[in-house]
Design brief:
The chain is α/β, with parallel strands linked by helices. It has 13 helices and 10 strands. The strands form 2 sheets. It has a 6-stranded mixed sheet with strand order 6-7-8-3-9-10. The chain has a 4-stranded antiparallel sheet with strand order 2-1-4-5. A hairpin with a 2-residue loop joins strand 4 and strand 5. Helix 7 packs parallel to helix 8. The C terminus is likely disordered.
Length: 314
Amino acid sequence: MTDVAEDQVKAPQPGTDEGEYPIVVKGLRNTFGDHVIHEALELKVRKGEILGVVGGSGTGKSVLMRSIIGLQQPESGEITVLGHKMGDSTEEDSIDLRSRWGVLFQGGALFSTLTVGENVEVPLKQFFPEISDHLRGDIARFKVRLSGLAEESAFKYPNELSGGMRKRAGLARALALDPELLFLDEPTAGLDPIGAAAFDTLTRELKETLGLTVFLITHDLDTLYAICDRVAVLADKQVIAVGTIPELLALDHPWIQEYFNGPRGRAALAAKDDPAVTSEQETAQAVDTASASTDAPTGAGEGASKIDMRKSGA
């Protein structure tokens, strides 16, 4: 692993990792039959950052995310999330841990036979079955609005929504339990540039307002430049580098250079540095928000008044 990621592999200090690094991966090995996906993979995610995760096709970006949240059983290695070692926790600890993160899978992964509001209520029913139907519905509609959708979208079915609206509905469900960690798997894939820029802006605002740590898998260079604090690069079965984009550009690894210095990488950098383009993106965000709902919260502006069921004891 390159020196850019040196802080990722230092020996952890007792009592500090949970606070400083809510996600710690050590020596991860994932295989499918004889095919090795990850070998001795190391990664630490800093609290409060948006970490972009990139890599070529087949490098195991989604497999890494699934390993972290317990949907993929690694062959070996150690994963610690919010101070809990995955696989070693009691059932009660595991349930509590799962309630502290939210996941937006590719395409939204909504239940097609449920309305958007009912989709958002699914994790609420699972982890807080004691709360009333009325309160659960109120929370669901609030999360729908928090994601930038109109409140009436809560009563629509996924097939009645556009691709961008389904992404936001999936995000609303991911935020249902007021998570500390947010996992996003290709959230802007398939969106037009205006919709992708609006989703990026929303992600950044939610992160800042709600104090989230975001693990973001993406191939969208505009997203990396616009909102990611650091970027982790998967190649050669490992995380070969973690750092800011300028730090990564200083490395001579061929994939990193081809990815960030290729035509699309140069265009993304130019767009980031061009005030006119930035102004157009801000205008697009305003138009997108207005079209989604005239009474929806601006970005995450109402996040400070979110309903935290763990604190309220609901």
